[in-house]
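The record is given unchanged here:
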Amino acid sequence: MDDFAPRLLHWYAAHRRDLPWRRPGVGAWGVLVSEVMLQQTPAARVEPVWHEWLRRWPEPAALAAEVPGEAVRAWGRLGYPRRALRLHQAATFIVEWHGGVVPSSYDELRALPGIGDYTAAAVAAFAYGQREAVLDTNARRVYRRVFDGTDDSTSAPTVAERAAARARVPTRRPGAYAVAVMELGALVCTARSPDCTRCPVRDLCRWSAAGHPVATRRRAAQRYEGTDRQARGRLLAVLRERSAPVGWPDLEPAWHDAAQRARAMDSLVADGLVEPLARGRFRLPS
């Protein structure tokens, strides 16, 4: 399938979305912030928060100089707020160990606090043009359909999957290629309603040739309403909106189930998202 990369790059040039973190001139810090924010969060929700973060903290040193609680507060309602703490920790590490400059190699990026395989590969590829396999959910779907002819997947990429994906990355324009694979999965080769008529590599796709076989392994949809995760979000919203510490009476209207409220608060404290104070009061981490 030697035509795969050239066709994909040609398609991407004509159909890519105008996402601010993909524009020329966005540095590695802007790319890193975007990739952490985009994990399990749609681009439309990320964009305004990303702009505000880069306005307020245009480089790692600016964020590292803030208390962690300000990162959590500025995270707003993006969800999974531990990502805000990870960014703050990564910024601090970048300042202390890399002179305030986001490192360019996969190994150095992977060594940053809270930065996993995907994010390290993405920053290396998108910001520095490194030849890395960037395997988000969309890219993995494209690869397994086109090359493996299946819609089955494991929860995390296997060693063999990573190796096969990296071998497909071209030596020319590897960063653009990595984005193009992800974009094809986001816009055309979607999970539920793939539009194969618009696919630039349809004739190469083994999944299409096999008649779109249904996956035998499907992940169950996760419930949100009434969960501890929803309770955590409600409690954290109260702390974000107030500059002074809050007590249990302030938190009761946010979640009426006392046992679940206490359990959710315990988990927020354990995750470092909330700092407990004397007399049953709480604040964002300082």
Observations:
- The first strand starts at residue 246 and ends at 247.
- The two ends are 53 Å apart (CA to CA).
- The beta strands are 246-247, 275-277, 281-283.
